[in-house]
Amino acid sequence: MKLLVHCNHIDAPHITPIASLYNAAMHAIILSIGDELVLGQTVDTNSAYLSAQLASRGIMTRFHQTIADDQDAIAQAFTWASNEADLVIVTGGLGPTEDDLTRQALAQAMGVELVVDEESLAAITGYFAKRNRIMPDRNRIQAMQPRGCKAIPNSCGTAPGMQVQFSRAMIFVTPGVPSELFAMFRLSVVPYLDELAAAQPALRRTILTQKINTFGLGESDIAEKLGELMDRKRNPLMGTTVSDGLVSVRIRSEFDDPQKAQAELDYTITQAERLLGPVVIGRESQTMQAALVELLLAKKATLATAESCTGGLVAKSITDVAGSSAVFAGGWVTYANEMKAAQLNVPMSLIEKHGAVSKPVARSMAQGAIEKSGATLSVAITGIAGPGGGTEAKPVGTIWIAIGSRDQATGTIATDARLYYLPGDREQIRDRAAKCAMQMLRFHIMGIPLDELRWGRKQK
Amino acid sequence: MKLLVHCNHIDAPHITPIASLYNAAMHAIILSIGDELVLGQTVDTNSAYLSAQLASRGIMTRFHQTIADDQDAIAQAFTWASNEADLVIVTGGLGPTEDDLTRQALAQAMGVELVVDEESLAAITGYFAKRNRIMPDRNRIQAMQPRGCKAIPNSCGTAPGMQVQFSRAMIFVTPGVPSELFAMFRLSVVPYLDELAAAQPALRRTILTQKINTFGLGESDIAEKLGELMDRKRNPLMGTTVSDGLVSVRIRSEFDDPQKAQAELDYTITQAERLLGPVVIGRESQTMQAALVELLLAKKATLATAESCTGGLVAKSITDVAGSSAVFAGGWVTYANEMKAAQLNVPMSLIEKHGAVSKPVARSMAQGAIEKSGATLSVAITGIAGPGGGTEAKPVGTIWIAIGSRDQATGTIATDARLYYLPGDREQIRDRAAKCAMQMLRFHIMGIPLDELRWGRKQK
Fold this sequence. Notes:
Two copies of one chain form a homodimer. The first copy, chain A, is α/β, with parallel strands linked by helices. Chain A is built from 14 helices and 17 strands. Chain A has helices at 35-38, 46-55, 71-84, 102-110, 118-130, 178-199, 219-226, 258-276, 288-298, 313-320, 337-344, 348-354, 359-373, 426-446, and strands spanning 27-33, 60-67, 87-91, 114-116, 144-146, 150-152, 161-166, 169-174, 206-214, 237-243, 246-255, 280-283, 303-307, 328-333, 377-383, 398-406, 413-421. A six-stranded mixed β-sheet of chain A has the order 2-1-3-8-7-6, with helices on both faces. A five-stranded mixed β-sheet of chain A has the order 14-13-15-16-17, with helices on both faces. The longest helix of chain A has 22 residues, at 178-199. The radius of gyration of chain A is 27 Å and the shape is globular. In chain A, 52% of the residues are buried. Mean pLDDT of chain A is 88; it is low at 1-19. Chains A and B meet through helix 1, helix 2, strand 2, helix 10 and strand 14 of A and helix 1, helix 2, strand 2, helix 10 and strand 14 of B.
């Protein structure tokens, strides 16, 4: 199923100020079921995801409520919510064990019995059969639902969801596992809302949003480049957020006329991307690795990686991208110096003279990666990710990154390297180093001087 | 103030299963106020923090409720919660701007007026004076509170909190900023609970918790192995949760006598770990890669990786662990077949005859990784992570994993491989494949037959 592609993708996309939503045509309530939530063992991220999705469609969520695995309390919440809201989305409590009580509670609230849904039973039996297993007896309960409910197929797990009109509200019940919830939301709630919006003009207000992701400059550099586009009174409205070293620019266009909203959004995006230049990775959830793979495909280039301190993170990131096999030859994780020498032909004397974390070693690794792989491009990373291993001259966070490229005509290999001092802990340093490496590759391919990548750079 | 030390530290300490908490001496409700929460712009982490803190003191949180910045809705929630619970903790809506309405809503619910608290006014004026600023007029509202409330000083910001007995409940109101909330919780709620516990022996129970993480069996296999240890009436009480392929067993011991609670917990953990056997990775937040590195260090073994479909994920995971350089020689990401042949000496004829995703190729990769790295152990992974590349004979999720080992005495290299069919999308398949590979390595090192790792396995 195509939906599975999105199973693990959380987008919290569309930031909708509330003033106009108080007058929204539809109000929602979100219920989350589970002891692990009311006991604080798990932070509820599902409700925020659902609220953001609804807000982007002009639907105001009035309440989130989290309830323990207690059938009476859940049944009361069903009754309350279905009287208070037009749309009720419920997550959790659909598992096969004794403490999963959402089905029973909905039946109690509706005053009906639980009945077996044969299609769901077949799907669950099939799920186990596909794995060469007999369905355990306890999973049978997952095929049951209150009489009158419609089952929602689960493309990622065993528990089907449920949909039913009860009292004032349309109720959707989904599993609490985020990947299953996301898939089911797209499969069942989105089509329902689209249908409603088509029928009710009041739901057809147009709020369009878009996010532009950048890497290579700080937040204030970005704000300076954007200038008056960031005026708070402007529509489309623009704001910046920082996450994992990326600076994202969020744009929101709200107009009565859908065409105007789209045209204004497009115009603002074009202006912003022009002002921001090559630090732009892409829009929405486009990752650095996806942008890099796209560029490699467009240039018919192939890439090899040679990693020391990042330990395979760059290769892992690139191969996250479906279809990367067309441009990624492979890579080396040369953690030990002997591996650098034996596998990438880095002369031991070079390591002894300059240290493994040095410009000559980074360049030699990049050179070796091209020679050994036959790729047209390479990137090499050697540095100190910590927590140990830092010295006064080379503190934790010192990272050399080299780019290697083979001249197609002459076959000559050229290498160039830059030094970064990256902040943070081991995990952050490795993450930022991998991002710097991938952005350097993009700059190199686009013919942009590497020094324009200012993030973490220090002249040497 | 000493409290400030903890301003940014979230601890989710004591995992308390709910069964006995249903009979807890005190019940709590947590209310979170704010448009940013019901719109999904911000994930509510405060409620989980507060619930965990309360659970560790034997107090059951019955509900979380999140409410928009709407005075009537907040007032209704105050009325409802103070009738339903003994303790109500409210976060948010205490700022100086027009959309901060928690004070007004509490006054409305209590049927009293807002009055100025002179001490709070002096504190807020002083807060600004200390920063060489005049207090803006709009901050005056922060010194106001419903008549009858006690102000709680704010050691981190301007908004004081409030405490009041109303209806059945003791109500505490704190700012929504996590650092201010944490400080105020320790400053006001904890002393109140300690005082109650001193007066009411029923609140002086000891609750100790521990989590055991496993990989290699399904949730129902784990339940079967644990048998009557999972009886819902048992103390210590045991429950299981699944996340990212790991099955975790949560244990909670609750007794009046602290020594008895510890002894019973220890005994139950020992029993559980004995019944579960080698699938146990470790306790609490111990990761698979940390457990593997620990085992490699203990056995003075060194490891090399040869990855195709996981594209460096195993190497990346192992090098996540600080200190892994002592056991990790390095690895290859042989994405292209030419790299498998040139770098790992996999005969091209083998790939042509059996395909790159096959037992002989996996074993040959493991063999090459040992030969080329000099490591004592190797792991090789070749499979189809999707979304493309699947066939009827080898569908997406088909993964061969081989272990290679060098006999220390004779120098001979032995290899062995297993086939897995892993469910999910590309990201999940890669994640589970990496975990299978690392768990296979652990089983191999511990001398456990690889077939005991049943997760995703299918006989061939």
